[in-house]
Amino acid sequence: MENYKKAYIAGGCFWGMEDLFRVRPGIVDTEVGYLGGDNENPTYKYHPGHAEGIELTYDPKVTTYELILDYFFRIHNPTTVDQQGNDKGSSYRSTIFFQDEAEKTIAEKVIGIVDASNRWKAPAVTTLEPFTKFWPAEPEHQDYLLRNPNGYTCHFERFDTFIPA
């Protein structure tokens, strides 16, 4: 794991995002949890200000941060404020939690590409927040859709890649 990197994103209910990302080339581990909120040790029932997000561990020899963000914008609707599908509230916001200025710059670039594509009917409202801490969700939320294949999700691939080959 020493040569792997981590990425932190939120785009609605964490179950669906985890399920789609887990099979992407270069993703070696996924974990759902809470990011960017107001309390220590958040839980599913109490996580004020936190987004439901995912921690992606990836192999930078196989994929890039830019390609991870490209896929992120293809599997959720980044144009809705605090909402994905039937889920409403700040827990379901579209956010990229950047760890350094390089990640922030890449995120801004990808948002620009997404907006310029005009594939969405409105511009992305995805926020950029500095990463502070990732709080893993309870065990019953990890790998939820593997254990509950008919469980709720509003995530699916909507477009081909935004990033030119």
UniProtKB/TrEMBL annotation:
It catalyses: [thioredoxin]-disulfide + L-methionine + H2O = L-methionine (S)-S-oxide + [thioredoxin]-dithiol; L-methionyl-[protein] + [thioredoxin]-disulfide + H2O = L-methionyl-(S)-S-oxide-[protein] + [thioredoxin]-dithiol. InterPro entries: Met_Sox_Rdtase_MsrA_dom, Met_Sox_Rdtase_MsrA_sf. Keywords: Oxidoreductase. Its EC number is 1.8.4.11. The keyword Oxidoreductase applies. GO terms for molecular function: L-methionine:thioredoxin-disulfide S-oxidoreductase activity; peptide-methionine (S)-S-oxide reductase activity. Residues 6-154 form the Peptide methionine sulphoxide reductase MsrA domain. The active site is at C13. It holds the Pfam family PMSR. It is an enzyme of class 1 (oxidoreductase). PANTHER family: PEPTIDE METHIONINE SULFOXIDE REDUCTASE, PEPTIDE METHIONINE SULFOXIDE REDUCTASE MSRA 2. Has an important function as a repair enzyme for proteins that have been inactivated by oxidation. Catalyzes the reversible oxidation-reduction of methionine sulfoxide in proteins to methionine. HAMAP family: MsrA. Belongs to the MsrA Met sulfoxide reductase family. This is Peptide methionine sulfoxide reductase MsrA. It comes from Putridiphycobacter roseus. The gene is msrA.
